[in-house]
Amino acid sequence: MNIILLGAPGAGKGTQARRLEEEYGLIQISTGDMLRASIKKGEPLGLEAKQLMDKGTLVPDSLIVRMIEERIAEPDCAKGFILDGFPRTVAQAEALDAMLAARGMKLDAVIELVVDEDKLVERVSGRFTCAKCGEGYHDSFKTPQKAGVCDSCGSSEFTRRADDNAETMKARLQAFHDQTAPILPYYETKGALKSIDGMADMDAVYDELVQLLGL
Ligand code: ADP
Ligand code: AMP
């Protein structure tokens, strides 16, 4: 099963994708995570992307499309994948259709997580992640069971994203409205789009997602 999770920054895409990966073996493909990994390694691609990410603007379609094309060609993706943070423009959605068709692959569902804007800001402002395994947390909505220790891997190192601040979030929300929201009608006209109330708690969102996907 190949799925797209759509939604503004902080809507809960990564949280839900990780859980679907854990429970159903679907591969989470997060373009944001891939770019951050590339920055960490000091790769030219990462360096080019970093300046744009720090400002909260999108990186060029050509760069992202190439990255996805290479990723979905890897053998593990045959198990099915969840696209998280891609596509983010109509051009990326069109490129995705073309690359899936060329590989004889298809999309099974496009699901939008709908969350109010003030809640999005609250979510990204409190977001932190285990530096070792990537498990996601939130200062108010999901703290580690033992303070300072990751529930998943026991590490005590956590990171916060440089772009998870109120100022950069303004630009990221603008990019979502201007460049990403137009892909909603793109999938709607294909009859592929379904929406979920992303304001509910994580378990409730997950249950609805599983039901919608028929898993
Ligand atoms: P996205 O991948 O869409 O940017 P995340 O999954 O990283 O969003 O979620 C953003 C923040 O909000 C994280 O700190 C996460 O723990 C928290 N979060 C995610 N879903 C919910 C939810 N349904 N209710 C409350 N907090 C949530
Ligand atoms: P995310 O982790 O999904 O919130 O993405 C963080 C940042 O990475 C975004 O603000 C963009 O600068 C960049 N990015 C991630 N995915 C894409 C994409 N599909 N297209 C363009 N830029 C992206």
What do you see in this structure?
- The protein is of the alpha/beta class and 215 residues long.
- Helix content is 47%, strand content 15%.
- The protein has nine helices and eight strands.
- The chain has helices spanning 13-24, 31-40, 44-55, 61-72, 90-102, 117-125, 166-180, 183-189, 202-213, and strands at residues 3-6, 27-30, 81-84, 109-114, 127-130, 136-138, 158-159, 193-197.
- The strands form two sheets. A five-stranded parallel sheet has the order 2-3-1-4-8, sandwiched between helices. The chain has a three-stranded antiparallel sheet with strand order 6-5-7.
- Helix 4 (61-72) packs parallel to helix 5.
- The longest helix is centred in the last third of the chain and has 15 residues, at 166-180.
- The chain is globular.
- The termini are close together.
- The mean pLDDT is 97.
- The structure holds adenosine-5'-diphosphate and adenosine monophosphate.
- Adenosine monophosphate binds at residues 9, 31-32, 35, 52-53, 56-59, 64, 85-86, 88, 92, 172.
